[in-house]
Amino acid sequence: MARFDLPTRTVAALLAFALAAPGIACAADDFADFKREIAKRHEESVQRLQDWIALPSIAAESLNSAAGAERMAQLARDAGFQKVTIVPTDGKPGVIGTLDAGAAKTVGLYFMYDVKQFDPTEWSSPPLEARIVDKPGFGKVIIGRGAVNQKGPEAAFLAALYAIRATGKKLPVNLVLVAEGEEEIGSPHIGQIVHRPEVEAALRRCVGVFMPSASQDPDGIVTVSLGAKGVVELELVSSGEKWGRGPAKDIHSSLKAMVDSPAWHLIRALGTLVSEDGNTITIENYPKPRPLSAEESAMIAEASRRRSEANSKKSLSVQHWIDDLPWVQANERLESQPTVNIEGLVGGYTGPGGKTILPHRAAAKLDLRLVPEMKKDDAVAALRAHLAARGFGDIEVGASHPGAGRGTEARRHRPGALASERGLVPGLRVHGRAPEARLRPLRPGPRQRRACPGRVLRDRVREPERAGLRRRRAVIRAVLVRAREVTPFWAPLD
């Protein structure tokens, strides 16, 4: 679900990048031309997003990847990127583009054009129609697959580029675009995009990489992510053939009295991976997370104080945190701990009614979330060794899809971390009230809800000069305060 009023705040983000560079200044009324163009082009911007949502590219299903890359490339060209190329990989194609504005500074952009799978029966509105509906408490919103993750925020950014071009003014920064079609399966081939010599060279000129995203809470507070957890998605399969016990085909359930069950075998194996409550990893020799630093703990405590626990529970439809932890401790756990999660568990008959069978095969899809400094290979190796030591060596451990196995976090003195040193982000009031600038601490990485290929991109970007760093921090703070001039864009999770 994405709010109907889209891209104005994105203009401020572009100007913030410009203002972070020494020697560039911008008056508050410089937004006036942009705002007029955004209002003038509102309908076409919304239609562009709706058309994009109508073309779902789903990497896990190999659906519309080529068409998705073509659409992404065309959107970039239309937005003013002078050079746009579709890049083949061993998986789904990527898109790279450059926009040379003749500026002194260059900023990288990360886009994804793929979306997750969807079940239309679970949606209140058809997920590919991107209908505009009235949502109580929010006003007019677009509901569709990708409206929030990530086509809505990306469309808002592109709409800002259209508006800037229409004013006849040049962008204050050059742009380097890297777009992929496999983010939702863990970005297994993004390295084949960013390691191309011309892409590496372009990224090394960048002072940072920006990823448009929906980052506003229901109360209007904006959160800037400083990092991401890594993710490994695995499928564990128990079968009578591999086990050497149980049936090699589905048989009648009455025979359970004399035949072992591969499904129960899998369930017993899963139970050894975590504590009885499912909340603590018990895999032998599993990589350990580093402890939170004092600075990170302080940021979490202050952010927890300013955020609403009740609103968070309501938005997630939960009543309790793990172990009934207090709000601050729950957030510390969220930021600092790896997890072993069951995404799906399937075996035998799952249709309407019953079917009296003893299934010969059962499978569980897991995701392992890793915090920075933990490595995918270490986690998977520990899992395999643990299963073998516990008598479950027959269970097959395969990748649902190879993923971004390492977490990432912002390094000090990188542009993405400049504001974090002061711990400030703008909070914008919504729901018809006057915008009110409020500043609150950022959350430290890793980002709590998802992973992204941040490390691959981060390691390509050069360290910016430290000269003028203090001034840049002060200028960025001024830009954040100036956010009171900007109409907020609200976009909750879809």
Please explain how this structure is put together.
The chain is an alpha+beta fold and 494 residues long. The protein has three domains: 2-224 and 409-485, 3-Layer(aba) Sandwich (Aminopeptidase), CATH 3.40.630.10; 230-288 and 337-401, Alpha-Beta Plaits; 290-336, no CATH class. The protein is built from 16 helices and 18 strands. The chain has helices at 8-19, 31-40, 42-53, 65-78, 151-166, 190-194, 197-204, 240-243, 262-271, 294-306, 309-316, 327-336, 376-389, 415-422, 454-458, 469-481, and strands at 2-3, 83-87, 94-99, 106-112, 131-135, 139-143, 174-180, 206-210, 227-228, 230-239, 251-252, 339-347, 357-358, 361-370, 396-401, 408-409, 425-427, 438-440. It has a five-stranded mixed beta sheet with strand order 2-3-7-4-8. Helix 10 (294-306) crosses helix 12 (327-336) and helix 14 (415-422) packs across helix 16 (469-481). The protein is globular and about 80 Å long. Residues 15-25, 410-450 and 462-494 have low confidence and may be disordered.
In short:
This protein has 16 helices and 18 strands.
Give the helix/strand layout:
Layout: E1 2-3, H1 8-19, H2 31-40, H3 42-53, H4 65-78, E2 83-87, E3 94-99, E4 106-112, E5 131-135, E6 139-143, H5 151-166, E7 174-180, H6 190-194, H7 197-204, E8 206-210, E9 227-228, E10 230-239, H8 240-243, E11 251-252, H9 262-271, H10 294-306, H11 309-316, H12 327-336, E12 339-347, E13 357-358, E14 361-370, H13 376-389, E15 396-401, E16 408-409, H14 415-422, E17 425-427, E18 438-440, H15 454-458, H16 469-481
Parallel strand pairs: 4-7, 4-8
Antiparallel strand pairs: 1-6, 2-3, 3-7, 5-6, 9-16, 10-14, 10-15, 11-13, 12-14, 17-18
Helix pairs in contact: 1-16, 2-5, 3-5, 10-12, 14-16
